[in-house]
Specification:
Proliferating Cell Nuclear Antigen, DNA Polymerase III, Chain A, domain 2, 2 domains, 9-stranded antiparallel beta sheet, 4 helices
């Protein structure tokens, strides 16, 4: 295996984002690229990403591989990349070698780990509501909700999208169909802000987000930039109203 990324920032950003949800993961590497599907320890959220082989300036893989890696360790190495750095990934038995090339050449070795986990895939559900929204706008309203509560409610109608939170105090943001692209019936679902705050960091890789949900059903949040995909699934929070 020999992979080279001339611009490793997007890979570094994705690893940093998902490391807040999962620590030890299995990455798949095959002719299509690098991908990962994982479930957080609380079994509440699922994370998926894919970086296609076309994004790499060099991509040599003799056979499909899976590597177990500690994301905190990988993140620490990737932070050593600076603008203009290139990143080389190579596997030697149970070692992942990372080369960072810029004005000097630096090499790191990370021990691969054995991870016992069931094969997972991102669920393909039919959602009643799909909302395409500016990522920064989504980040802003989620931060507003965090000020007043630990959960927020998504409400979608054919011509509007609403995000609101209620505790002792409340916050509410409403978007018309002129401000967001809404494909929806009437849907309402409540979710943990602890998780969503981590999900919306995907705004680092894409200025557009797609939010899909139905009444009291798991939601899916997708960030796409070119052929790079970062997706999250979150179980609803079902409880008595505050």
């Amino acid at each position: 295996m020999h992979l080279k990324l001339d611009s490793p920032k997007i890979f570094s950003d994705i690893v940093t984002i998902i490391s807040e949800l999962v620590t030890e993961v299995r990455m798949k590497i095959n002719s299509e690229g690098i991908s990962l599907t994982a479930i957080d320890p609380a079994n509440v959220a699922m994370i998926y990403f894919k970086i296609p082989s076309a994004l790499f300036s060099e991509f040599q893989v003799e056979k499909a591989e899976e590597i177990g890696i500690n994301l905190d360790n990988l993140k620490a190495v990737l932070r050593r990349c600076s603008p203009g750095s290139s990143l080389i990934l190579e596997r030697y038995e149970n070692i992942l070698k990372l080369g960072i090339h810029d004005r000097i050449k630096r090499d790191f070795s990370l021990m691969l780990i054995d991870i016992e986990a069931e094969e997972k895939s991102l669920p393909e559900w039919e959602f009643n509501s799909v909302v395409h929204i500016n990522s920064d706008a989504l980040v802003e309203v989620i931060e507003d909700c965090t000020v007043v509560s630990d959960a927020c409610t998504f409400i979608a109608e054919p011509d509007k999208f609403i995000v609101e939170a209620h505790g002792l105090n409340s916050a509410r943001a409403e978007f018309s169909s002129d401000e967001v692209e809404v494909h929806s019936g009437n849907s309402m679902a409540r979710f943990s802000l602890e998780y969503i705050n981590k999900f919306v960091k995907g705004a680092k890789i894409s200025n557009r987000a797609t939010l899909s949900f139905s009444d009291n059903h798991p939601m899916r949040l997708d960030f796409h930039t070119g052929a790079v995909v970062l997706s999250f699934v979150l179980a609803p929070r079902i409880e008595q109203e505050d």
